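FORM 12-B: Structure-to-Sequence Request
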């Protein structure tokens, strides 16, 4: 089974939640901490459920999300 790694760039995120709404598997939540801009950035809350559709990355207007296919041995 393929698994995916989500990389978030919290300093780019403005907390619009478009990525969260676009995710069909409820993988994304909002961090409790705030970034330097004062927003609660997006983060993975259930990365193991990610199907790699990249809807979140596509919807993000700030380019704050990247998705990679995990290789064997990756954490």
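FORM 12-B RESPONSE
SEQUENCE OUT:
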């Amino acid at each position: 089974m393929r698994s995916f790694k989500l990389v978030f760039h919290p300093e780019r995120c403005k907390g619009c939640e478009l990525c969260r709404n676009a995710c069909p598997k409820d993988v994304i939540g909002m961090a409790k901490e705030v970034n330097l801009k004062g927003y609660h950035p997006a983060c993975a809350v259930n990365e193991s459920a990610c199907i790699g559709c990249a809807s979140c990355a596509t919807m993000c207007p700030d380019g704050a999300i990247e998705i990679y296919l995990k290789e064997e041995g990756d954490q």
